[in-house]
Amino acid sequence: MKKQNLISIGITGLMGSGKSTALGFFKEKGIRTFDLDSEAKKLLKIHTKCYEQILEKFGNHILNYNGTISRRKLREIVFNDNKSRKALNKIVHPALADRILSICRNLSKRKKKIVIFEGALISRETKIGKTLSYILYVDAKKETLSSRISKRDKIEKKDARKLLIMQKSIEKNRKTADFIISNNSNLKEFNYQLNLVLDKLVY
Asked: How confident is the model at residue 116 (pLDDT cuts 50, 70, 90)?
């Protein structure tokens, strides 16, 4: 990304790693933050360009009774079908990257210094990742992750491990991240590491 006054950071990592907690840390610091999952939902609203393209690709059977796209039905289609998942990403990712650029332009005009985006699929290999100044990867041990997911989603640990296996491709994002922090112990230690990253970005 070309050097500019606004610094944009993407937070990524496996489920249960603490991405949302990290986003909350920066938000409490008064920094503008955006959850890319929430931004993606906006792109799927009725009659948007993405909405029409997804219906054309996957059919009307993915709709809810009120005409909105059922994220559950769509997730079931792409979850175990790599071809369908790539087709969906080809529709959503460029639109999401454009949304990020639009947010950055607006914040830059308002003289903001930092903006944070959080999303599991943030990677230097995608258009989304290439629009960002830095990428922060939140890491954690597999056993820690499975325990958190099991507790959070009220599922068995073995099922949590299966979910992590399905996210295996996200792990490679660690290799291209600008910052890597571990979240294996307590919140105090995690916040300390996040403060170190913030200090490097600001100074």
From this structure: very high
Q: Are 97 and 64 in contact (CB under 8 A)?
A: no
What integer pLDDT is reported at residue 2 of this predicted model? 41
Domain interval for residue 139:
7-195
Mean pLDDT confidence for 129-138: 93
Q: Is residue 66 part of a domain?
A: yes
d(CA 122, CA 62): 26
Report if pTM > 0.85: yes
- For 136-162, what is each residue's pLDDT tens digit? 999 999 899 999 999 998 889 888 888
Does residue 201 form part of some domain?
no
Look at residue 1 and tell me if it is in a domain: no
User: What are the pLDDT digits (tens) for 41-52?
Assistant: 999 999 899 999
